[in-house]
Design brief:
The complex is a heterodimer of chains A (about 425) and B (about 270). By secondary structure, chain A is an alpha/beta fold. Chain A has two domains: about 260 residues, no CATH class; about 55 residues, no CATH class. Chain A has ten helices and 19 strands. In chain A, helix 2 packs antiparallel against helix 7, helix 8 crosses helix 9 and helix 9 runs antiparallel to helix 10. Chain A is globular and about 65 Å long. Chain B is α/β, with parallel strands linked by helices and about 270 residues long. Chain B has a domain of about 190 residues: Rossmann fold (3-Layer(aba) Sandwich). In chain B, strands 6-9-10-3-11-12 form a six-stranded mixed sheet, with helices on both faces. In chain B, strands 2-1-4-5 form a four-stranded antiparallel sheet. Chain B has a two-stranded antiparallel ribbon with strand order 7-8. Chain B is globular, with a radius of gyration of 18 Å. Classes of the chains: A alpha/beta (about 425), B alpha/beta (about 270).
């Protein structure tokens, strides 16, 4: 085996190594797992454009330095974070707030509900919690570098346990708030275990401050015949860099719908690892990115059809204005025994500016012989003929463009089952378009 | 005059009744540097239906697009006056608000925008541009339902994306629905008969005839005489090489049908 000679470490890599050395003594629990994960990171370093999975998002170049770990929020920091989650304010949900990556029970709604158990991740890790020990880092085996770094340095997060047959009365919203102190890095890790035949809507709102570096991993287990809708809204401030990963293992005859909506942040990488491990599950994985300025958003999707008869639909759209860049990488794998898999993946980019860039890399890797799989990808400007048609009916240019963009992303957002969430996302789109006019 | 037309008619009160609705004077226009209209003169009076006929490439569709203000079409000389006011400096949406309506030869599909939403957005945008208030929801719905049912457009089609999955005939009917809702001063129908079978043609022509009014002018562009059996014009103009080369009554259309365009093509050359 050839051993690649590692380049000299970058300032950010050296600083991450120092951070790990000095912090590992006080990071809660799972020491061996953390050490292993950090060694994996050290061996590879920050990913760069010659690493295929990170081809369009050169983290080594984008991450000049590594910010210090965020200090635990004090009362003043929490007070500054209490208005977070505004974009989903109209949605009646159970709010769980993390400030600078640290779970804040005092800002969270911990009302008792049968079948719903919620606790802090740091506390669970420190206590050697059995559920956490069984699942954290084990939901799907991945050697992804961002996930390894998170595993090594994970501080806090939320553990959600929905018991077999339970239906959460309200959506559960995880607000990743920022106290707005000096730029820092945070490594939040959450785990949601949804039991057999249980039902829940899980929401995440990411609101990192300018120049923060946030690495967030959520691990999700969806039991047989369970129904889960997961919606993630990324509205980080300009300048923020975020790597966020959903790792989901889905059971048999389940329903799993996922949507990621990205409207903010300098660099955002949304990673989805989804494994269909039980037969006859139906699932939609979707995404919408609305980018402007010099924003860069990357959606990297790895779908593993590991059981027969599952249907998955992947639909990702980005609207790119100014000098922004939208990246889509999607890989659907179908294992040899996953016969009758039905998977269709599509990625579409709408370029509102000549300087915007869309990169798309869809892949299918099929080992079964009786499947229906396909993918499509498009990138283009607004249709001039259509624009003229709308204007000829009296609709001014900007309004006509907005109507066309709304229609473009509406196809994705309309798929959200929860009405309040759907409306909040459409309102968010409107606001984005309004800010453009 | 129909009741539905009263709004646009009120705006007319101030206008000089002796003035022509549309005056096109010595119009020259080109696309990609290629001259298409070469000194076209045309007048449409209020209440008049003018048919424009002519061979392929004579500039019929170009005239329609130039009237509506399509960006790729550049006017190099001449003027277009609607109610005495030049349209040339106006954007397409501003022209629409002034009352210019183009029924497209190939209506566009707009996936994700329901016909209902589209109609309402267009109508309110025009009203706003004219300084009028938005139409109330019940009034808007009432008008859409009435106009749609006369054209045989069912409610389900109104909820679908504009023209998505519509047949050729349905798309043309949808154009006439838009025209009925927007109540234009000047309607330009570009080859509205193309691709229609006789039944669809009758429905569309009936829809157009309902919208004839003493205050509204229409330009009906067609290659064939057939449409003019159903929308009977007051005048017929023959276009060749980007100019009006002959004008006459409705019998001119029959003459053209019998003798073809050959003499006009050579005459203008």
């Amino acid at each position: 085996m050839n051993v690649e000679v590692r380049q000299m470490k970058t300032a950010a890599e050296l600083s991450l190594a120092e951070t790990f050395e000095s912090a590992k003594g006080r990071l809660p629990g799972l020491r061996a797992l953390r050490e292993d994960a950090f060694r994996r990171f050290e061996a590879q370093g920050l990913p760069h454009r010659r690493i295929e999975e990170w081809k369009y998002t050169d983290l080594r170049a984008l991450m000049r330095d590594a910010k210090p770990l965020a200090a635990p929020p004090d009362a003043a920091a929490k007070a500054r974070a209490k208005d977070s989650g505004a974009l989903l304010r109209g949605v009646n949900c159970r709010r769980l707030v993390l400030v600078d990556g640290v779970f804040a029970p005092d800002l969270s709604d911990l009302t008792a509900e049968p079948g719903v158990t919620i606790r802090g991740m740091a506390e669970a890790l420190a206590a050697g919690d059995a559920l956490v020990a069984r699942h954290v880092g084990k939901v799907i085996d991945t050697d992804d570098i961002a996930v390894s770094l998170n595993t090594a340095l994970m501080g806090d997060g939320v553990v959600i346990d929905i018991a077999e047959g339970a239906a959460a009365a309200r959506p559960i919203l995880l607000v990743y708030a920022s106290s707005g102190r000096a730029p820092a890095s945070m490594f939040a890790r959450s785990l949601a275990v949804v039991g057999r035949k249980a039902r829940v809507t899980l929401l995440e709102s990411h609101e990192a401050a300018a120049d923060d570096q946030a690495n967030v991993v959520t691990e999700l287990l969806v039991g047989d015949e369970a129904e889960v809708e997961h919606v993630k809204l990324v509205s980080n401030r300009d300048g923020a860099l975020q790597l966020s990963t959903l790792i989901a293992a889905i059971g048999a005859r389940a329903r799993f719908d996922d949507l990621t909506c990205t409207i903010g942040g300098a660099v955002t990488r949304n990673q989805l690892y989804v494994r269909y491990g039980g037969e006859d599950t139906v699932s939609n994985l979707r995404g919408v990115s609305l980018l402007r300025g010099r924003q860069h958003a990357d959606t990297t999707l790895v779908v593993d059809h590991a059981a027969p008869g599952c249907q998955s639909r992947e639909l990702f759209k980005s609207v790119l204005d100014d000098d922004s860049r939208g990246v889509f990488q999607g890989r659907i794998g179908v294992q040899a025994h996953a016969q009758k898999t039905d998977a269709k993946m599509a990625a579409h980019a709408l370029l509102l500016s000549e300087n915007a860039e869309a990169d798309s890399k869809p892949e299918l890797e099929i080992f079964a012989d009786d499947v229906q799989c396909g993918h499509g990808s498009t990138a283009g400007a607004l249709d001039e003929d259509l624009l003229f048609y709308l204007r000829a009916r009296g609709i001014p240019a900007r309004e006509a463009e907005a109507l066309m963009v709304t229609a473009f992303v509406g196809e994705v957002i309309e798929g959200v089952a929860h009405e309040g969430v759907r409306e909040a996302l459409l309102a968010t789109t409107d606001a984005w378009l309004g800010a453009r006019a | 005059m129909t009741r539905a037309h009263a709004g646009a008619a009120n705006a007319l009160m101030k206008r000089d009744n002796t003035m022509s609705l549309l005056e096109i004077k010595n119009l020259h226009a080109e696309v990609d540097g290629k001259p298409i209209l070469n000194g076209l003169n045309l007048t449409v009076e209020k209440g008049q239906v003018a048919a424009i006929m002519g061979p392929n490439g004579s500039g019929k569709s170009t005239l329609a697009y130039v009237l509506a203000g399509r960006p790729e079409y550049e006017v190099t000389a001449g003027d277009i006056l609607l109610d005495g006011e030049s349209l040339l400096e106006l954007e397409p949406d501003a022209r629409a608000a002034k009352g210019v309506f183009l029924a497209f030869q190939y209506p566009m599909e707009i996936p994700g925008v329901a016909t209902m939403t589209f109609l309402r957005t267009a109508l309110n945008a025009q009203r706003k541009a004219r300084g009028e208030t938005d139409l109330s929801t019940p009034e808007f719905l009432k008008r859409v339902r009435e106009a749609a049912s006369r054209l045989g457009i069912d409610q389900e089609m109104l909820r679908r994306g504009v023209n998505v999955g519509f047949s050729g005939g349905e798309k043309k009917r949808n154009e006439i629905l838009q025209m009925a809702m927007l109540e234009p001063r000047l309607a330009v129908l570009d080859e509205t008969d193309s691709g229609l079978d006789i039944d669809a043609l009758k429905i569309v022509a009936d829809g157009v005839n309902r919208l004839r009014s003493p205050e509204r002018g229409m330009i009906v562009i067609t290659h064939y005489q057939r449409l003019l059996n159903y929308i009977v014009p007051d005048v017929v103009h023959v276009l060749s090489k980007g100019r009006v080369v002959k004008s006459g009554g409705k019998e001119l259309a029959l003459e053209l049908e019998a003798r073809g365009y050959a003499e006009y093509q050579s005459e203008a050359a």
